[in-house]
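User: I'm writing a tutorial on reading structure tokens. Could you give me a worked example: one chain, its sequence, then its tokens, then a sentence or two explaining what the tokens reveal?
Assistant: Sure. Here is the example chain.
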Amino acid sequence: MEQLIAQIQNGHAIQYAEVVKNYQQPIYRYCLRILGNRQDAEDAVQDIFIKAFESIMQYKHTVNFSSWLYKIAYRHCLNLLRKRKYQRLLLPRLFSPEVTTEGPEQAMDKRLFSPQLGFALTALSPDNRSLLILRIFEERTYEELGEIMGCKPEAAKKRVNRIKEKVKKKMEQWQEDMLWDEEKEPIQLKT
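And here are its predicted structure tokens:
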């Protein structure tokens, strides 16, 4: 990939189509999980690839290109969420994207996301949710997360672990709340 990027930086812009081909699906999945809406994710992917192309000359080969691209996606999606005050609308739909026919990824998402996990994830800030998605679903290493977030890998690892603890506590809270609700319902005895 680095050789391809070097060619693009040397004026062979037509090669950028190969970059888009290689990264379009992973970036789309990431945006869809963050934005929770297919149309918004598609628009975001286009914007991200345009921004990346416009900034390709600033890309330094000292960092992984994938991390550089995800950093653009990470910032773009967070800006969209902030700009549109999307978080309030996002909560109920965060991990159940709009899909007309269920593909393998959507089937996996359905199996992975319980109501408890959905509750816990929606309680996170967009920034923390994004970081967790990058680590778990996009399988980014701590080194890559550090590059994306502009911190050391150890700091990224600590932050992910803190986020996981928050998710665990929220899932436990959801379970306790559900038990409490069940106890509140009156039991009707037959006489």
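What the tokens reveal: DSSP finds ten helices and no strands in the chain. The CA atoms of residues 25 and 45 lie 9 Å apart.
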